[in-house]
Amino acid sequence: MKYLYYFSIFAIILLVSCGEKEQSDGDIVENGSKAELKQKRETLNKKIRDLNSQIKQLDKKLSNFEDTSKYALVEALELKPKDFKHYVKVQGDVTTDQNIMIYPEFSGVLESIFIKEGDEVKKGQKLAKIDDGGQSSQLAEMEARLDLAETRFERQKRLWDQNIGSEIQYLEAKTAFEQIKNSVAQMRSQLNKSVIYAPFDGKVDEIITDQGQVVSPGQTPIFRLLNLGEMYVSANVPETYVGSIQEGSEAIVSLRALGKSFVGKVTQVSSNISESNRNFRVRVGIPDSIDFVKPNLIATLKLNDYVAKDAIVIPENILQENASGESFTFALEMENDSIGKANFRELKLGKNYKGEIEILSGLEASDIVITEGARTVKKDDKVRVLNFQKD
């Protein structure tokens, strides 16, 4: 009522002061040129702006006479657009594709071990030798017979080329040579399996079988060989996130046992969803700068599945619900620096993360929301703002 009273006084003053010019103003409206009309409009707009400014000053002064002690005391926050990210948290473990148990391909006694635990080895390097049980001697005899068969075949071929001798003699010599040649190749291949070679560059992590023991193919593990140069974190992700987590998605990885974390990228997403747990697997590479990483180390991953640019975000704890389960909050219409009116705002919510929630509708940038004390506030209540902060 006080505001209306002062506004009426100003209106009367304005009418009195302009009374003498009312007739000329009417003439301008009726008969004025375009330029005169635009000029008149600008004059009136300026007067309106001046009046609004004076009213605001009056409101500010009048508020000093109001009894604000009865107003609820609140804290408020001015909203600003910002980028909002949501992450899904999953457990994973450190692994490498080059972490294998080496089994023999040849049966016999483990005759020699050429390396020791902890040695760095190169691809193709000899690791151990299995006793061949005399097969190397058999190979020497077969190679001697091969030389003889080759000599006979070459001689018979020369005679056949000169039309000397029968075709059957030539073919018999050729067949005998090829047969023993194949047998020698097979024996060499078999004997080559008696030597165990490193399948890739890596480190001998464990020697499992002692020298002198009898070993069998596929049954007796001899070494564990691994390469720590290409470690990665592997994790299962629920199928709910198919399409929202892709190659290149941001990943925050925590290795709790090492007390270290890093920000990486998803380097691989499996194309298959497991029937047993309805999950798909993702892979995140581990940078070389992280020391002491070992296979099977537990890792926690936060995978970025959603990004909103210039989003409106508020603290999740200021949300309230009505009887229908709809979320709402109060935005302030400030009368001065410390007094405001609580406007009811029904909200449409987005994703939430780390105590913040995205507002899809109901609030706008530069709105001022109540952060503390809103539980005691009702729609259109006036409040005192104790702590007004900008987001």
TrEMBL record:
SUPFAM superfamilies the UniProt entry points to: HlyD-like secretion proteins
Gene3D superfamilies: 2.40.30.170, 2.40.420.20, 2.40.50.100, Helix hairpin bin (1.10.287.470)
Domain CusB-like beta-barrel: 233-304
Residue ranges the record marks as coiled coil: 34-68
Domain CzcB-like barrel-sandwich hybrid: residue ranges: 101-218
Keyword match Transferase: no
Domain Multidrug resistance protein MdtA-like C-terminal permuted SH3, chain residue ranges per copy: 310-374
InterPro entries, sorted: Beta-barrel_RND_2 (IPR058792), BSH_CzcB-like (IPR058647), HH_CzcB-like (IPR058648), MdtA-like_C (IPR058627), RND_pump_MFP (IPR006143)
Family to which this protein belongs: Belongs to the membrane fusion protein (MFP) (TC 8.A.1) family.
Name recorded for this polypeptide: Efflux RND transporter periplasmic adaptor subunit
Organism per entry: Psychroflexus salinarum
Lineage start: Bacteria, Pseudomonadati, Bacteroidota, Flavobacteriia, Flavobacteriales
